[in-house]
Amino acid sequence: MYYVIGVSAIAALAGLLFGFDTGIISGALLFIERDIQLSTGMKELIVSSVLLGAMFGSLASGSLTDRFGRRRLMLVISGLFIFGTLIATLATTVYMILVGRLFIGLAIGIGSYTAPLYIAEVSPVNLRGALVSLNQLAITIGILCSYLINYSFTNTEGSWRLMFGIGIIPAILLSVGMLLLPESPRWLVKRKLLDQAKHTLRQLRRTDNVSDEIADIQNSLRVKQASFREIFSANIRPVLFLGAMLGLIQQVTGINTIIYYAPTIFQLAGFQDASSSILATVGIGVVNVLATIFAVFMLDKLGRRPLLLSGLTGMGISLLGLSLAFFSNIGSSILPWIAMSCTFSYIICFAFSLGAILWLMVSEIFPLEVRATAMGIAVFSCWFWNFVVSSTFLTLLDAVGPGGAFMIYALLCAASFVFCYYKAPETTGVTLEQIEQNIRNGLPLREIGNMASETA
Fold this sequence. Notes:
By secondary structure, the protein is an all-alpha fold. The chain has one domain: MFS general substrate transporter like domains (Growth Hormone, Chain: A, Up-down Bundle), CATH 1.20.1250.20. α3 packs parallel to α5 and α14 packs across α16. The protein is globular.
């Protein structure tokens, strides 16, 4: 067990880099504009340039992982992180920053697909939820680290360069760590490398009795690999829709308006200077990590659906409270603390629900013959809507004010709850092969985690 946990933790460094490189811009942006004059549109572009790269990376990730393997691609990802970070750190113009962050975005887009897929495929079924959620935990730790670094360098000359540059350290650690890890046994079986697959499974499971698991993988592979057209077949289309909708829901409910623009929001609420608003943002990082730790331990005990639905409820209430606080024009001495408490409760609810469950569920719900391409589409949906929300947030604030903006996100939370209530399945404790069989049997989306069909 400890070996597979270690393997998953190293792979989850990709998630830490994901969190760090998306979170670091929230503070760095305040200092870039001191050195380089930026319009509202250029600020949005600096933030969203990573997301453009991530969209392209997610589109290519499925075919790349199938062709080159999960482990080898993780090594490429670490190289992209290093290269992009160096360009952004040494940038002398805003365009160099954009290029560097585009390369970082490519790494994030590929890694946001590959890391949870790799972890899901090396994990035993009883630990799959917790281990895949290590990737989300690593994302939140990366975000927290970025906020702490932002605060540490607020009074340092050239602070934004140092903020970017620290990201090279975890990228190097990922590169070294992946050199030591095995390839996914599912990919090895798929490539007909049975001896290597058995050896890898013996390492991961710490037992010689892996023939049943190898047989399960082989059985799932007997279905021919689907063409792009077959991904839209009658059986696959519903789960593809579910994956794409989960990606949309995670973003349009407002999470990255908080992650990317928290210092800006806190300044609107009344925190007077960059240092105090960034310090308040550090609190977001702390509660994000703690709530994600809760999710890691509870996903396989409480189940996906209860956490997802309760989290969406809490997110909607928190956003409603934040909206009403801005609309009410209450005293400036109270508003910052109301804004902070609503933001904290929103982050807690997101972290134990959509934050962890999106990446876990999209690694579970697709049959193996379409998993690579279908996961790529779901992850692309996430990054596309992330780009849309992040690149329009400042413009939305100018148009309707913070109260109106957060009211819109609260209403989207309510709509998302209705969708997930009727469509999201419970996959806790169900093997990937059983989920595949349920999909092939044409079960409704909400029932594809039903174990009763095993005897059907």
